[in-house]
Write a structure and sequence with these properties.
Belongs to the class-I pyridine nucleotide-disulfide oxidoreductase family. Its cofactor is FAD. This protein is an alpha/beta fold and 549 residues long. It folds into three domains: 206 residues, FAD/NAD(P)-binding domain (3-Layer(bba) Sandwich); 108 residues, FAD/NAD(P)-binding domain (3-Layer(bba) Sandwich); 108 residues, FAD/NAD-linked reductase, C-terminal dimerisation domain (Enolase-like, domain 1, 2-Layer Sandwich), CATH 3.30.390.30. The protein contains 16 helices and 24 strands. The strands form six sheets. Strands 3, 4, 5, 6, 7, 8 and 19 form a seven-stranded mixed β-sheet that branches. A five-stranded parallel β-sheet has the order 10-17-11-12-13. Strands 20-21-24-23-22 form a five-stranded antiparallel β-sheet, sandwiched between helices. Helix 3 packs parallel to helix 11, helix 5 packs antiparallel against helix 8 and helix 5 runs parallel beside helix 9. The longest helix has 20 residues. It is globular, with a radius of gyration of 25 Å. The N terminus is likely disordered. Bound molecules: flavin-adenine dinucleotide and nicotinamide-adenine-dinucleotide (NAD). Flavin-adenine dinucleotide binds next to helix 3, strand 4, helix 4, helix 5 and strand 6. Nicotinamide-adenine-dinucleotide (NAD) binds next to helix 9 and strand 20.
Length: 549
């Protein structure tokens, strides 16, 4: 039996939904005449009434052992209030603005709840910025660079191979493959769930009418009962910089960098700045990392933040803290960054990575009485509802935490609130996964927070260099740190630095979620596979218990 949440997550449960699809081939957009209101009414068969039971028999899922049909949950709970019972005269029960992770999850939840839903996105492919310019390309790029670093370190290869610098867009060849595969996977989700996708820029005419620019100066209008804004974000571009200059980049444009540089400035030492510092040093570039704070990623546990700063320096990153741009001088083949402190830094190029802005300015929010903040973000309540009661928002456009992981869950939860699921809850606890080389991942409180709150905590540590698995796979640096209450042994925070950290963290996260079992003793009393990186939990737990008296 597939549970409700599991089927929501995979989105791939086949022909279980009863709205007609209008873009059968891919995420590609139907032509305007294909989506005209009149045709649509004929084409879209509203069969909400068919989805009445909680459990459905899935036609494609057959148990291989006894040939019986596998039951799946329809996505409703018995006490769900359904939009279909809201007697409305609109074409759609819900419209989703943006086909990124938040939009996709919202659309899947809505359609699985029997709603007639349409998704609008200006790209001709689904996946959002996350797939096309954010998470996926940067992580695929990071993996290629990681492989390159390991390859160069291996004496078996380095003798035979010539050391050659490679431009970024060539290293991205692998990333392009991953993007293609991701787009095709997600397109299938939309197709199988028969979700209509319209390509175009959406803007509001009023709180129940959307105008979609499907081609240059060609508009289509649709009406809807409820909407969810999941338009995501883009790099924040200050006016003092000319991003058309071939030596000035942001995190979108950097994916097209087609020349090799020796030296690059990264302005902004947030997650993007730090991840790219690893990527560039891995490619052999010299990096000046300009941080406008006094510590790298200062929301991290300071020991972890110190560790990444230390490793960056070892790899040749020059970190300049507490600095602020005055202006940038651009030349054909170099740039000079002038800092307010009077320093001047010359480099082949600059990557600006100083925050992001929500994509709200083209939405004509005034027409529905909404206003975004200075960074283009929308305010929502605990049910992801904006100040307008039929308009919801999720993902990067609402700010925190601006992660694809959370955007997906926020989209699903927002849709759950929209359909009236009684068990819907807002997303609250999100792990941090930072894909520097090595990785960083954390969940729960930091030492600084616990000290400020005067919680009597203790620390258990495991250094990767002592673990058999780490020695086998050649992990030289890394640490797992567990913070726990010294009286109750409750786990309060887990901080991991080292490769595989973003995977390792989930073991601790699962234990922390089990309220009755959330104690350090779990790791001592449970037999783990050996040798594994997960053994770090046992080692750290024993190390911590030895400190308790
Ligand atoms: C370089 C980089 C690396 C990242 N790495 C990670 C990572 O490793 N892990 C992680 O969890 N997160 C990562 N993130 C963050 C992650 O990409 C975002 O949190 C995620 O994309 C947010 O998803 P979303 O659905 O809110 O919006 P998006 O992915 O931004 O998608 C929004 C969609 O809305 C569309 N849209 C915009 N305007 C309109 C309009 N008017 N009408 C209709 N549609 C519109 C856009 O075309 C886009 O397709 C990274 C981000 C960047 C930039
Ligand atoms: N591995 C990941 O999870 C991952 C990877 C890359 C990006 N992201 C997401 O992308 C988002 C953007 O990353 P980023 O590195 O560009 O930005 P960031 O939010 O991490 O901050 C980068 C720098 O910009 C500054 N800054 C941010 N907001 C500002 C504001 N309103 N005014 C002035 N300065 C501000 C910060 O002080 C910091 O020095 C992050 O929120 C992050 O969640 C996540």
């Amino acid at each position: 039996m597939v549970s409700k949440s599991a089927s929501d997550e995979t989105n791939d449960t086949g022909k279980d939904i009863h709205t007609e699809v209008s873009n059968k081939s891919s995420g590609h957009v139907p032509s305007p005449e294909h989506t005209e209101g009149k045709n649509k009414k004929e084409k879209i068969e509203q069969t909400h009434e068919q989805v009445t039971d909680d459990v459905m028999h899935h036609p494609d899922l057959v148990n291989p052992l006894d040939d019986t049909r596998i039951d799946i949950k329809s996505g409703f709970t018995k006490d769900s209030r359904r939009l279909k019972s809201d007697d409305h005269e609109y074409e759609y029960d819900a419209v989703v603005l943006g086909a990124g992770p938040a939009g996709e999850a919202a659309a899947m939840k809505l359609t699985k709840s029997g709603k007639r839903v349409v998704v609008v996105d200006p790209r001709d492919q689904v996946g959002g910025n996350s797939t096309h310019v954010g998470t996926i390309p940067s992580k695929a790029l990071r993996q290629s660079v990681f492989n390159l670093i390991n390859f160069r370190r291996d004496p078996m290869f380095t003798k035979a191979m010539e050391y050659k610098q490679v431009p970024l867009n060539e290293v991205l060849a692998k990333a392009r493959q991953v993007i293609r595969r991701q787009v095709s996977t997600h397109t299938r989700f939309y197709e199988r769930n028969r979700i209509e996708v319209i390509q175009g820029w959406a803007s509001f005419i009023d709180a129940h009418t959307l105008r979609i620019e499907v081609d240059e100066n060609v508009y289509e209008t649709i009406t809807f009962n409820k909407a969810i804004i999941t338009v995501g974000s883009r790099p924040y571009r200050p006016e003092i910089l000319d991003f058309n200059h071939p030596r000035v980049f942001d995190s979108d444009k950097i994916l097209q960098m087609d020349y090799v540089v020796k030296k690059i400035i990264i302005y902004g030492a947030g997650v993007i700045g730090c991840e790219y510092a690893s990527i560039f040093t891995g490619l052999g570039y010299k990096v000046d990392l300009i941080n406008n704070q006094d510590q790298l990623l200062n929301y991290l546990d300071s020991e972890i933040s110190d560790a990444i700063a230390h490793d960056f320096r070892q790899f040749g990153v020059l970190i300049r803290s507490n600095e602020e741009i005055d202006h940038l001088e651009t030349h054909d083949d170099y740039v000079v960054l002038h800092l307010k402190s009077g320093k001047r830094i010359k480099s082949d190029a600059i990557l600006w990575s100083n925050g992001r802005s929500g994509n709200t300015e083209g939405l004509n929010l005034e027409a529905i009485g909404l206003k975004a903040n200075g960074r283009g973000q929308l305010k929502v309540d605990d049910t992801y509802c904006t100040d307008v009661d039929n308009i919801y928002a999720a993902g990067d456009v609402i700010g925190w935490p601006s992660l694809a992981s959370a955007a997906y869950d926020q989209g699903r939860c927002a849709a759950a609130f929209m359909v009236g699921d009684s068990d819907a809850e807002p997303v609250s606890s999100v792990p941090t996964g930072i894909y520097t080389i090595p990785e960083i991942s954390c969940i729960g409180k930091t030492e600084q927070e616990l000290t400020d709150e005067k919680v009597p905590y203790e620390v258990g540590q495991a250094f990767f260099k002592h673990l058999a698995r780490a020695q086998i796979i050649g992990e030289r640096s890394g640490v797992l740190k567990i913070l726990f209450h010294r009286d109750t042994l409750e786990i309060l925070g887990i901080h991991c630095y080292g490769n595989h950290a973003s995977e390792i963290i989930h073991i601790g996260q699962a234990v922390m979620k089990c309220k009755s079992n959330n104690t350090l003793e779990y790791f001592v009393n449970t037999t783990f596979n050996y040798p594994t990186m997960a053994e770090a939990y046992r080692v750290a737990a024993l190390n911590g218990l030895n400190r308790v008296f």
